[in-house]
Amino acid sequence: MSTILIVMSAADTWVRNDGSAYPTGYWAEELAAPHKIFVDAGHTVDFASPGGVLQPLDKHSADPAIAGEDCGQYVEHAEKALAAFGPLLRLSDVALDDYDAIVLPGGHGPVVDLFEDRDLGRLLLGADDAGKLIGAVCHGPAALLSAVDDAGEWRFAGRRLTAFTDEEEEMFGTAEGAPWLLASRLRERGALHEGGAAYQAYSVRDGNLFTGQNPASSAPMANAIVEALAS
């Protein structure tokens, strides 16, 4: 069986263009659904973040009116999984050789810190060099932006991927005032961004890179990673 590293943001606030603070945290389904799928398949899962900080739950992901009637099960699973793991690993201490895959869930946190985290960038560059599996869902693909090599080249330019779309950001009510929009930024950096219907499951695989568009895409992305690990 394999060992998978789930990398969380450490951010609890997203500062908007007008200087206002938008509370953020991990999105329950995007953490819980992959974790359950990985563990049920017999894999070991570790958690890490910048500084080992435990990010709070994004309360929107616990609201049935926003996250769906079954959101409670994701919140419960995520909280139990994090409590059972204990203190998160510090990204700066992570040894890439210990892992077969790196997975990046969302919430808005990755657009606050992970997109420019040098320790994560080092891990992602090494993982891609070694052909290890890399997964990211919703706003998690923002973290891929950290993978810039010594020549200033972004590793995932020219790669097919998906992420939370500008349309979905607008529908969620967070596009206006956002410092930048994820899908647009990924395209600007050279990614071949693809999008499906808003808030419907949509995932893309490009070699060792697995991405999901939104919370509903968390399980399909995770299942694709499990299938790839098995092969």
Q: How would you describe the overall organization of this protein?
A:
The chain has a single domain, classed as 3-Layer(aba) Sandwich (Rossmann fold). The protein is built from seven helices and eleven strands. It starts with a strand and ends with a helix. The chain has helices at residues 28-40, 64-67, 71-85, 118-130, 166-172, 182-188, 218-230, and strands spanning 3-7, 13-15, 21-23, 44-49, 89-90, 101-104, 133-137, 160-161, 192-193, 203-206, 209-212. It is of the alpha/beta class. Helix 1 packs across helix 3 and helix 1 runs parallel beside helix 7. The strands form three sheets. Strands 5-4-1-6-7-11-10 form a seven-stranded mixed sheet, with helices on both faces. The longest helix is centred in the middle third of the chain and has 15 residues, at 71-85.
The amount of beta strand, in percent, is 15-25%
| Helical content (DSSP H or I, runs of 4+) | 25-40%
> What structural category arises from helix and sheet content?
alpha/beta
Q: How many strands?
A: 11
CATH superfamily: Class I glutamine amidotransferase (GATase) domain
Total domains, how many?
1
Number of H/I helices:
7
Write down the oligomeric state: single chain
How is the largest sheet built, in terms of strand order? 5-4-1-6-7-11-10
Element string (H = helix, E = strand): EEEHEHHEEHEEHHEEEH
Instruction: Assign the CATH topology.
Output: Rossmann fold
Rounded average pLDDT: 98
> Low-confidence parts lasting 5 or more residues at pLDDT below 50?
none
Keywords: Hydrolase, Lyase, Protease, Stress response
InterPro entries: Class_I_gatase-like (IPR029062), DJ-1/PfpI (IPR002818), Prot/Nucl_acid_deglycase (IPR050325)
Organism: Pseudonocardia endophytica
Protein name: Putative intracellular protease/amidase
